[in-house]
Amino acid sequence: MSAASNCRLIGCWWIVEADLWDRDYLNLIEPATITIRANGHGEIAFGAMQAGLDLAYSTSMVSFTWAGCDEMGEVSGDGHAELLDSGSIEITFAYHNGDEAILKAKRETSSTAC
């Protein structure tokens, strides 16, 4: 994958849907978000899970490995996010040796940063 300078996914996104969890669970502790930065790192938080991302970029997709905590236990995995024609992103999020979820996110457009 290429450098982040051409990546259209850089920014903060609100996670609004998941195939495994309902919206109440996604926003359990704080609003569910994924932040994609141009410096090779980002964050994701939903439910009781918070994790840091190590990113690789293309124009309309990022792939990542992640590590963090979920209900006070260490968790890790990998995934990718792809820009859809609608302007939203679809995130494939996999726990190491565990669940794989499909999340949908919309770009954060308010003045309140993620």
Automatic annotation (TrEMBL):
<protein>
    <submittedName>
        <fullName>Uncharacterized protein</fullName>
    </submittedName>
</protein>
<keyword id="KW-0614">Plasmid</keyword>
